[in-house]
Every structure is written in structure tokens, then in C-alpha cells.
Write a structure and sequence with these properties.
Strand order of the largest sheet: 2-5-8-1-9
Radius of gyration: 20 Å
Distance between the termini: 34 Å
Shape: globular
CATH class of the largest domain: Alpha Beta
Strand content: 5-15%
CATH superfamily of the largest domain: P-loop containing nucleotide triphosphate hydrolases
Number of domains: 2
Order of helices and strands: HHEHEHEEEHHEEEHEHHHHHHH
């Protein structure tokens, strides 16, 4: 299992240069059966990361470009009348893939954004009164531009909460950027990327996450983190029980990535910013985006030992 994980990381690091931490978080999110939100400027490698993940895992991949005129049926699919048979036939939309990139999701209207909710939460969609199962595994990577850019519709808290993690890729370090400039278009590296695993192998890894042990003192540490977010004066609102479960499950996946059979506090601390930042708001600026500072306050203000 350790060799499989390392081969995945090596392959991904060979395509997306200088982003080892973000790649690990994205893989941990997938292993934890969550969904990933990437918020960053255009051209930072968001699409490259999502496509590379699908290729190294041998999974089917579709990209949905969200715009203001995208309709839910453009995402889910629609029934089309077949004149030869005299009945309607459902044509699956791009959502029917194992890895789905929802690109620039906050450029779509809230109605189209909400079309993803049932799919992300239940692994199924409902159209024409019928429920249709989505592929398994099913992993959504949504990207969004900073809300300060024009033509964006901020995601509501209910939809943000569907994402297990939110990460930023950021500008590359000078050494990585120099190698990037020398090597040219990274799509060539992507084209040569060979699958390191398949869907069955991925499900084995995902099932292994559930076997990672969590001690009572570790659970108490997570509870103190959650309680601090609920009672701290600087927090507009605290983490929900779903947020607490997300933190613990992400820590399990991070422990698996590091070949541990149990979760240690460092696992919780490593994933906490990406799990809680998009779930928190500052009391002084309820509509703002102060989750990053609040996550650091949780890490510095809560002792590992109660």
C-alpha cells in the first residue's frame, strides 16, 4: 500500500511542479471520499491537477465549464425524444464520470450551482422523476476564482460545506518556476502520464482510511478544537458536527498517506486549515472570508493535551 501511494505522489509531482503539499491534500481528500474546492487565480494549474489525478488513478474524467448561462440539464443530462422508438431516452450529462472538474463554479448562477448538491452528497442525480446512480468512485473538483473578480456568484455556506477541503495552489517557488519555464507546456508531461492504480485499487485505499485507528485523547483534542470555534468571540459561528467529522476523516486519510495505522495530533493539524477555513467566518466580518486567520487561531489557541 505504501508503494502504491508513493508511486501516485511521484507521478503527480512530476506533472505539477513544486506543489507537494497541495497534491497530498488533494489525494487525501479523494481517499477520504470527499470533494475538493480549489480557489485561486486562473493559470495556476487547477485543471492540470484534476486531470493528472484522473490519469494516474485510471479514472474517467469530464470537465464542465461553468458560465452564467449553464443550465442544470447541461450538467446532469436530459431526456431526448427518439422518433424511431417513439419514447424518450436519457442522455447522460458530463456529471457521469468518476472525476469531474467543475471549472469556475462561481461564474454560474446559484440554480446551476445547486445541481451539484445531490450528486456530491448522495452520489446520484434525479431527472424526470427517476434517480440515477453516479459512477463509483465519484470525485468532484470544483475551482473558483477569487470573489473579488467580476462576474462571480459566491457559493453559499450550504454548498461550501459539501466540500471536504478547500485549497489554494498559489504561485510556484522560484526553482519550480524555473524548471517549469525550461520544460515548456506541462500538458506534454500529462500526456505521458501512465495510470498507477485503477478504480478497484483506489477503493481499497479508501476502505483502508476507515481502518485507521483514532484514540480517545485524539477525539478529545478534536472536540476542543470544535468547541473553541463555537465559543470563541472572534468566530461568527462554529464548526458543525459534519465539520468535526470531516476534520477527523481527513486526518485519517493524511495518516494513511504517511503510512501510519493511527491518527496523531500532527495529522489533524496538517489538514485542519484546508478542512475548516471555508467553514468559518469572523464575527467582525460575517460576510467576509477570514477563515484562514481563524484556522491559525484554532491551532495556536487549543492545546493538544487537555
Amino acid at each position: 500500500m505504501k508503494d502504491h501511494i508513493q508511486s501516485l505522489l511521484d507521478a503527480l509531482n512530476g506533472v505539477l511542479l513544486g506543489k507537494e503539499g497541495q497534491i497530498k491534500l488533494a489525494l487525501a481528500c479523494l481517499l477520504a471520499r470527499g470533494h475538493l474546492l480549489i480557489e485561486d487565480l486562473p493559470g495556476m494549474g487547477k485543471t492540470l491537477l484534476s486531470h493528472a489525478l484522473a490519469k494516474v488513478l485510471g479514472l474517467t474524467y469530464n470537465r464542465i465549464q461553468f458560465t452564467s448561462d449553464v443550465l442544470p440539464s447541461d450538467i446532469i443530462g436530459a431526456s431526448v425524444f427518439n422518433r424511431d422508438s417513439g419514447d424518450f431516452r436519457f442522455i447522460e450529462g458530463p456529471l457521469f464520470a468518476q472525476v469531474v472538474l467543475a471549472d469556475e463554479i462561481n461564474r454560474a448562477t446559484p440554480k446551476s450551482q445547486s445541481a451539484l448538491l445531490e450528486a456530491m452528497e448522495e452520489g446520484q442525480v434525479t431527472a424526470d422523476g427517476l434517480t440515477r446512480a453516479l459512477p463509483d468512485p465519484f470525485f468532484v473538483i470544483a475551482t473558483q476564482n477569487p470573489v473579488t473578480q467580476t462576474g462571480t456568484f459566491p457559493l453559499p455556506e450550504s454548498q461550501l460545506d459539501r466540500f471536504l477541503m478547500r485549497i489554494e495552489l498559489g504561485y510556484p517557488e522560484p526553482d519550480a518556476e524555473r524548471e517549469l519555464l525550461r520544460g515548456g507546456d506541462r500538458r506534454r508531461a500529462l500526456d505521458g502520464l501512465a495510470p498507477q492504480l485503477d478504480a478497484d485499487g483506489l477503493q481499497v485505499l479508501q476502505n483502508s482510511v476507515d481502518d485507521i485507528r483514532v484514540s480517545d485523547p485524539l477525539i478529545e483534542y478534536v472536540q476542543r478544537l470544535v468547541a473553541h470555534s463555537r465559543h470563541g468571540a472572534e468566530f461568527a459561528f462554529g464548526l458543525s458536527p459534519r465539520g468535526a467529522l470531516a476534520l477527523l476523516h481527513a486526518a485519517r486519510a493524511w495518516a494513511l498517506l504517511h503510512d501510519r495505522s493511527h491518527v496523531v495530533p500532527e495529522d489533524v493539524q496538517a489538514v485542519l486549515p484546508s478542512v475548516v477555513e471555508h467553514r468559518l467566518r469572523e464575527a467582525a466580518d460575517y460576510a467576509g472570508h477570514g477563515g484562514g486567520a481563524l484556522a491559525q487561531k484554532l491551532l495556536s489557541g487549543v492545546d493538544v493535551v487537555g
